[in-house]
Design goal:
It is built from five helices and seven strands; from the N terminus they run αβββααβαββαβ. The chain is an alpha+beta fold. It has a single domain (about 5-200), classed as Aminopeptidase. The chain has a seven-stranded mixed sheet with strand order 5-6-4-3-2-1-7. β2 (about 45-55) and β3 (about 60-70) form a beta hairpin. The two termini are about 25 Å apart.
Length: about 200
């Protein structure tokens, strides 16, 4: 399915790619700016973020799509970036134990795929403490109709798809890395970017 370009297409895409798959979840990340005239917090829609391939038996999930929205940012939020803030809140939810505050899923491992030319995702993953585990070759078929470029490799004769393939970098963070330094990095990002609050 092509990437959505309208709200209606986004709703259909989320329904088909996430809601109908038991191992996938989509979250709306809301951020409070604390600038309400009444002294309360104004909650703004900041991002859509997903978990894919969730495995409750093996305590694993992968961060999927992240779409951040940049309207009504405070200076602090602009510095941290809505995407970084959304991923930070999601990581806290994934790794925190159910007995923690705020409670979480208690996962052992969280992964993320990134296309080789997605420098922003590579930078954010490293900043948050993810490790590059390797390159997954031929991991997806490229939708050339959306202007995507493949891995430059020649297709084998008789390829079923006929479309180029693409490679991806795979990053992961495990619970011990989270407790060793990941939690501190996320807390710092949330403290710098959100003086008043964030929720999924």
């Amino acid at each position: 399915m092509p990437l959505p370009s309208t709200v209606e297409e986004l709703a259909t895409w989320i329904e088909l790619e996430y809601r109908r798959k038991p191992g996938s979840m989509v979250f709306a990340a809301m951020f409070a700016d604390g600038n309400s005239a009444t002294g309360g917090s104004d909650w703004n829609f900041g991002a859509v973020i997903s978990l894919e391939d969730c495995d409750p038996e093996h305590l694993f999930a992968e961060i999927g799509m992240t779409i951040s929205f940049r309207r009504r940012e405070t200076i602090l939020q602009r510095r941290a970036g809505y995407g970084a803030l959304a991923v930070s809140v999601l990581l806290r939810y994934c790794f925190n134990l159910p007995s923690d505050s705020p409670p979480g899923l208690g996962l052992r491992r969280v992964g993320v795929h990134s296309l080789p030319n997605n420098a922003a995702t590579h930078k954010l993953a490293k900043r948050l403490g993810f490790r590059l585990e390797g390159k997954q070759r031929w991991c997806r078929v490229v939708d050339v109709a959306n202007g995507k470029v493949g891995n430059g490799q020649t297709l084998r004769k008789g390829d079923v798809s006929g479309s180029p393939g693409i490679d991806a970098h795979y990053f992961s963070m495990c619970w011990d890395e989270w407790e060793g330094h990941g939690r501190d990095v996320v807390q710092h990002i949330l403290a710098c970017g959100l003086r008043c609050g964030a929720k999924l």
